[in-house]
Amino acid sequence: MRVKVLKAHTFTNSDYAYQKPENAGIGIETWSARATYTLPWGYPDWNWGAFIYFKRVYSSFWFNWQEVLDTRFRWQQVRTVGASLLFDVHLLRTHYPFRLGVKGAYSPFGDQLGREAGQDWSVKGVLDLRFP
Which domain holds residue 80? Predict the structure, then answer.
């Protein structure tokens, strides 16, 4: 019997709303659902000289559910909730927007988010450069 192995979906988007667990990688079949809410805190128009200009401050809150049938025909389930605090900025008077911030995820059901067993917290920094 020959099984075609497909790469699982990563579910990333431009708002960095999804915290992809490290153990969800290659799978034969993937089922998932997510809910995201983005809350703008403001448009401060702050600058610190010619170095940095803060254009927008906002947060994202999310819930994700994913089941992956791995290559050993075992179902792995990953359920996470998370939040992020993000800043849209321009550096050194360029026209290219940067996104800086921090995002964190927690698995309230004890699903593994990292390589080690029992790792149910994940905090990562965000740095994103967009070209128009």
Answer: 6-129
